[in-house]
Fold these 2 entries.
Entry 1:
Amino acid sequence: MRKHHISTIINGEPTEFLCEPQLTLLDVLRDELHLTGSKEGCSSGDCGACSVTVDGRLVCSCLMLAVEAEGHKIETIEGMARGHDLHPLQRKFLEHAALQCGFCTPGLLVAAKALLDRNPNPTETEARYWLAGNLCRCTGYDKVIRAVLDAAAELRAE
Amino acid sequence: MLDYTTPSTVEEAVRILAEAPGTAKVLSGGTDLLVQLRSGRAKPGLIVDIKKIPGISGIRERDGGFVIGASTPGAVIGECEALQRAWPGVVEAANLIGSTQVQGRASLAGNLCNASPAADGVPALIAARATCVVAGPRGRREVPVESIATGPGRTSLSPGEFIVEFHLPKLPPRSADAYLRFIPRTEMDIAVVGAAVSLALDAGGVCADARVVLGAVAPTAILVPEAAAALVGRKLDETALAGLDQAARRACKPIDDKRGTIEYRTKVAGVLARRTATIAYERAGERR
């Protein structure tokens, strides 16, 4: 099977990889590049655990072929903290105990960051609709939403 | 053996598709195709990713109407303020397809060609008299959106053909559209019933023209002329709404499944047609 040579920028780093055309971006992130923060939940675009951004646009990496990443900028959960300094969203998730098992957390954080990058002051309703594609079976979402709105307030320096 | 190619022109894509009949699949947003690849429901030998074709993604105004590229993701459609102002029903329908993540990829052409009877993007396009440009080995043809889906998972497209763009016509004065779908929760579900209505009013607020389309109550989205006829020549009074409700219910040929029984879907189709028509009427009235 012919492998494709793909050049991308992942979390700001020029990154190249070889992949077979049937592999998803999630497959390559996890198995080739060892960026295992993005999780495989449903493999059908329903759960959001594999959320990444492509050129700033939130997508499920399980619903994108790795070959489609050619020439695009990918941001994953691994690019969110600056060294040991957690992103305010990550800190607020800890403060509000917005996670239990943690499987959905990387996807929720990536999705929440995409929301705040676009809308620094979302209403609770806007946040709930935006994050409706990120399933969490532990928290019941309330703490997640509180953490996101609190992080938004901090980022606005209120 | 699967291969992947990214043609850079429509003509190149047509040639590649025509040379691999039956085994090539067009890839746009991929939100349906990748699920089908994973499940084994689709087993293509070649994936033809059309997104590198210039103009295949994006929205432009032309002759007072709009051209929406086949691969334009829902999120981009939702961010187009001019389109939102002119065709709010088309935009709200497109934005109901899946989650934020799915909106980042999913396109109207994919929604149409996947040919789910419950596709949210389709009824509003039909109500808006949208057409699509189909490219194929014999050139291009422009056809009404309602001519594409022929049944669940089936389309009228011939081997080698694919959709290049949609055309939305110039909006007549005092006209507007709307789309509502019913699901048992508030997000992330498949339509039990969808209803799209497009109306044009005369200067006195009487319906001069109407299009009513129902989704998820038949093998394809269905245009219901009898429901539109109940509205034309009337303001949106109870007689008009009752006639619309009855005609919508009569047009239903739904299935029974876990989302709704035949009886339930039929009842909801009438209710939803009323609510959608009311929204379209209010929007059109605001444009006097």
Note: The first strand of chain A starts at residue 4 and ends at 10.
Entry 2:
Amino acid sequence: MRGRPLLYTSYEADQSMLNTTTKKVLLGLFLGFLVFLPFTGGAKSSGSRLFDFSIPIVGFLSSNDYLQLLATVCVFAIGALGLNLLTGVAGQVSLGHSFFMGVGAYTAVWLGAPQGPLLGMGLPIWIWLPAAGLVPAIIGVIVGPVAVRVRGLYLAIVTVGLVFIGEYVFRNWRSLTGGSQAGRSFQELDVRLWKEETPLIEISQNGDFLSTNGKGFLMLLGFLVLFTVIAKNLQRSRAGRAFQAIRDRDVAAEIMGVNEFRYKLIAFGISSFLAGVSGALLTAFLGRTIPERWDLILAVQFIAIILIGGAGTVSGTLMGAAFVVMLPRVVQNFTEWMKSAIDEGGFIATIADPIVVTSPTDGGIINTLPGVGPGLSVLQANQVLYGLLIVGFLIFEPLGLYGIWLRIRNYWKGWPFTY
Amino acid sequence: MRAKSRWLALLLVLGLVLAACGGDSGTETEGDDTTTTTAAPSGDDETTTTEATGDEPMEVATDFGVDLDAGLIRVGMLSDLTGPFGPLVSAIVAGAQAYWDDVNANGGIEGLEVELVVRDTVYVVDTHIQFYNEIKDDVVALGHSTGSPHTVALNADLQADGMLAIPLTWYSGWSDSAINSNLLSHGQPYCIEAQNTIGYISDEVLGGASTIAIASLPGDYGQDSAAGAKIAAEALGLEIVYDGEAAIIPTDESAITSVANGIASSGADIAWVATTPGTFSAIFGQALAAGYQGIWSGPSPSYSPAYVAPDSPIKDAIAASFIGGTYTAGWTTEGAEAFHGILEAAGLPLSDYYFEGIVEAKILEAALRQAFANGDMTRQGVLDAAKSLENVDFGGIAPSESYVGADNDRLQRQGYIYAPDPEGLAAGTSGGRIDLETNYTHEIAANYEFTGACYTLAG
Amino acid sequence: MTAAIPIIAQVAGGEGHFASALSEGLSLGAIYALLAMGFVIIFKATQVLNFAHGALSALGAFLVASFATLVNIPGRFLPETVPHWLGWSLSALFALIAAAAAGMLLERVFIRPMVGEELFAVAIVTLGIDIALRNVTNDFIGTDPRPLGDPWGTKVLDLGWITFAHTEIAQIVVSVVLVSAVALFFRSRTGIAMRATAFDQEAARAQGINVGRIFSISWAIGAVLAAVAGVFISVFPRRSAGVDTATAFFAFKALPAIILGGLDSVIGAIVGGFGIGIAEAFVGEFVTFPALGFGFAGIVPYLVMLLVLIVRPYGLFGTEEIRRV
């Protein structure tokens, strides 16, 4: 087998998710690194860690701030897996993902938040988390028939309507959501058996080996791995093949015996389930949110994730989630680096100067002054880059980051015969 | 097409790799790297790294955000620079920066320079929390935190980290010691502001009014202000002929229209509207079109000098019918001239909103100096020093604040009353505001018994 | 049913309420109709659902504000005797030309390379354009609203039982003029070419029609309509202080209008726009149960849209899609 990795001698081998040794080894190393990461760091970071040293080069990821970012990547990836299934694999364009996330989040808080002035029943995580997935799934299945009657762009518009209707409901249901602008606090990710004082697994406090963000990250990583396996499995199952058939030629699929209505509903249901779980985990991890959070901008962010990552592919979705969530931080660091490069002078400064604005009279594109100044703020620059990246990826590389990865991999596979 | 896209893809990847490596926040866990901040003093201050003077006591304790060797103190600012309160907050942060530049040029805090670490939260709670986690190990205190739900969300973390924060919201709950252990609020709360301003209008402008219409955004800002308006109405014997508390939904045209129509058809003497500038102008315009002719008023965030800009269609109407209240001085207020120099040196255009930032900076300055004198510049140390401050003086741009004593006694009851100034704005001599009263307290506010927030943020 | 009685009583007894709802409905409807027309023209010619329409409307309003007040072209070159309204109209005209150019530029750079790709992909490209364009425009607008300097100001026409602001009258007049202009355009040579392209691109090309040019023209027209709608959103009394960073989000409300009217029908867009506008205004005025909370009228367009999709998916005037394998 060594010399001929692509020779499959059984159906299982052909269909397996990790079909080469390289894939297995690399995945193992990567996961191992991610699990090991939160245990390192120590010293200056808030909260004590098991190991005091920092991994070279990538050690900065073990700081609390980056761990929170990585945990957010995991949560967004879970939600994006759902949208990928619906839009990338089954071809049903949905701009309403944020609505289902909101429904999931508020279901979770209704069941899981401690009793108080706002609605909350204090139930443990193993009740509220599945419910946070099931309730949006049911709503997705109910909304489904309306959506199934229309295709493509009509569906996109319907889901936009859902988001606005959802925002209205969340804003006005004050006893559940805390009301517009004010919002409410959400329960922790602690694992309890049933309402007892000290949880079985405590996530919300710093521990001896891990900080609270580290624990949260590991828990969310666990969920992500679980859902990734489920999603990848789904793609190669009967239902997955049916989805792809509907995406490619739905009339032909119907003729062949694929029950379009049923499978579209299933796709909606699963996608809404994942969205709900993602919404619940996000709010439980961050602790507080407002009803306006679940708006169209969030839904567009998810579309961006699956498109930039590569629609229809699970690896692409994960890459896309990492990219989109980390982008603001990357842009910020880049801007700061350019700014300090200007201060130091030299070759880079001449390139950076027209881009960065350093004083109210300087010219440039990105403004680094606190407050009023010419040029785009770092946030606006972020958004513009984001929009341009969506356009760029769609025009030049429809398979997104996954497509780029494929090119790189194939280049090296064929090296030096790359012509 | 294929080759082009391949090169583009490789370029993109290279760019990303460069960007990710380029940010030297790789060593962020050490906490005091000078390359991880966004703010810089403007041009002329680049060379002044003031030496630590020989006689500073070397046993000053520090943990985060203060680097005695490098002579730096870092202060975090979690601000809404591009969101709903963007115009206001951008100017505030710019004012604070200008003030710190001046302090740094004159020796800093006992030889230590203050550097601001600014993050734009766009008024989103998640982003606020995320940025807090990003910068908290870098800074010794939060000089600015925009938004009440945002600051409430941080409260638990602030307490766990022993971090001090100056909230940029005038929610009356910040005066309640049960909530504000790590917070230093300042300026009259919305609740008091409403009482002072409505009282002034009723007594001085109208010589006795009989009806009032109230409308507000939902949430801490709007409803705290509306609560104050209702207290004022009761104390003055005004009948509330339109109650639109929490009725203004900024993204909803018809909600805005129905509020405007409600105010117009009520025909109230005074209309108190607590909202953002965009929606205020919409309500004002539509009510005007429907024939409303009463006096308009609202808390400071409802007003914008853009209303009386030379080309604004509502310039004359606003100038004739608007009276507002606010917390700090404006450009043309007596006592503010002392600061014009600093602001002009920073190259800032004329505006009324810088002084709020200077007030925040001055509070922090007092806390930092006190902490240094105590020999404890850890985060907790700065917090304790801040909570011991009495009668912080602002040099004439705001009434003094005190952080010691009973809530009811230290609650800020003085404010400013102003009218729009279109002529001054057009001539470039004012920021669009002309003061009618400074350090003003109306009877109602003076007698008000404070027992907790006027409007309670649930959950 | 008993809940309906208070509503009927209000309608019957409160004349003022009905009148204000009507004027609000007409003015809102005119804006939605303009936005919907722009959407539909672009869709008909290029098969693209343009999510960037909101950004285009904000850009258009900003251009008018710039030409009229900031840079004052051509006002600064005109002699003093020229009345203000004429100077402003010229500035607005220049701004509309600039907006049309912007629309054509967007089409050429971003949409043309996507010819032949899936509709969904192209729609998302417009979404990306919307994000980028909106942020750049908002950055230029700045943090304070920018007034447009229009000649109608705050003047109001009081007819006793109903009052119209001059801007609202202007809106209705301009809308009628534009609708007629568009109707006439579709009878012209280029207009017929556009209808042919909308019907079948391949056949149109075979007939010698320059499809690329048709695309550009349709985007130019769409951008101009969006700009005019943007102007009307940003004047007294709707947003008296001018165009601000929230203007770009207005256009989403026009989506229910095109669903109601049918994605590929210009008449449908107009009828749908006015229909949605009037529905929203009347619900906002009369349906006020406390249980509904605030802002119910804002989602009425979307509820109507869902209803239409259940009952008659292709809208009032849209053509039914026939799919073949």
Note: The radius of gyration of chain C is 21 Å.
